[in-house]
Amino acid sequence: MKELKFRVWDRIQEKMLIPQAISFDTHSSVPFAVSVPGKSWEQIGKFQLLQWTGLSDQNGKDVYEGDLVKISSVIYKIIWNEMLAAFELIEQGSSNRCDLSTVPTGFVIGNEFQ
């Protein structure tokens, strides 16, 4: 089974956190609450849930949805494409796309939130 990892962007405190637990609705599989270090359960609306792509960059850093990745001097953002049910790389400032398999040749330079 593929390992699933998440991180969350706290929209109120404006910082990235690693959740201790995520609670999903049993009927719709939609997340509805998150537990983060130092706090009990909080509604998901306070957070942006970001999933790990399953890939690492050339430095071995895990790559998540929302990350900015530099590949051959071009910066791409990792997004989740609902229609394809897959992660994609979108070139910043254009609509050009790049194959996700190129991530290991680039490196994470930040994320869309920080």
Question: How would you describe this structure to a colleague?
Answer:
The strands form 3 sheets. A 5-stranded antiparallel beta sheet has the order 11-10-9-8-12, with no helix packed on it. The N and C termini lie far apart (32 Å). A hairpin with a 4-residue loop joins strand 1 and strand 2. The model has no long low-confidence stretch (mean pLDDT 92). The chain has one domain (6-111): SH3 type barrels. It is built from no helices and 12 strands. It has strands at 6-10, 15-17, 21-24, 31-35, 41-43, 47-56, 62-64, 67-71, 74-81, 86-91, 97-98, 107-111. With 114 residues, the chain is an all-beta fold. Residues 5-112 form the YopX protein domain. This is YopX protein domain-containing protein.
Q: What is the strand and helix layout of this fold?
A:
Layout: E1 6-10, E2 15-17, E3 21-24, E4 31-35, E5 41-43, E6 47-56, E7 62-64, E8 67-71, E9 74-81, E10 86-91, E11 97-98, E12 107-111
Antiparallel strand pairs: 1-2, 1-6, 3-4, 4-5, 6-7, 8-9, 8-12, 9-10, 10-11
Which descriptor suits the 3D outline?
Answer: globular
Per CATH, the class reads Mainly Beta
| Structural class by SSE content | mainly beta
- The CATH architecture assignment turns out to be Roll
Calculate Rg over CA atoms.
15 Å
Total count of strands: 12
The side-by-side strand order for the widest beta sheet comes to 11-10-9-8-12
Domain YopX protein: 5-112
Protein name: YopX protein domain-containing protein
Organism: Desulfosporosinus fructosivorans
Pfam families: YopX
